[in-house]
Amino acid sequence: MRGGWSRSSPRACGARRSEARDRGSATVWSVGAIAVLCVAFGVVLGLGHAVVVRHRAAGGADMAALAAADHWAEGTAAACAQADRLARAQDARLTRCVIVGDISDVSAASGGGPFTAEVRARAGPATPRP
Hints:
Number of helices: 3
Helix content: 55-70%
Oligomer: single chain
Shape: rod-shaped
Low-confidence stretches: none
Strand content: 15-25%
Number of strands: 3
């Protein structure tokens, strides 16, 4: 090396310093992207669970209303007992049962905590009885 000249240009030295500062930044970006994906996945799972709970409550309410309407002639207690049995078979719980004539009006709930859904259903004959 004559005259104190180095083989690397000043531009190359600056590039090396920049590379040294950027070393490991891909790891930080990867961790950030993974965290965002985990949060999005959690939100999708929560929404999916809420939909399942809502459908379970709706199925329980519909089945309970039909059972109560089918047994209205046996009295309110017997009709509501049948409605409760069918709601439980659908993984729901009967929260309200009213029989007015041959029309049943029930509510069923499913889930717990922030994922609780309550659905109301009515059932009776297709045409009013004279």
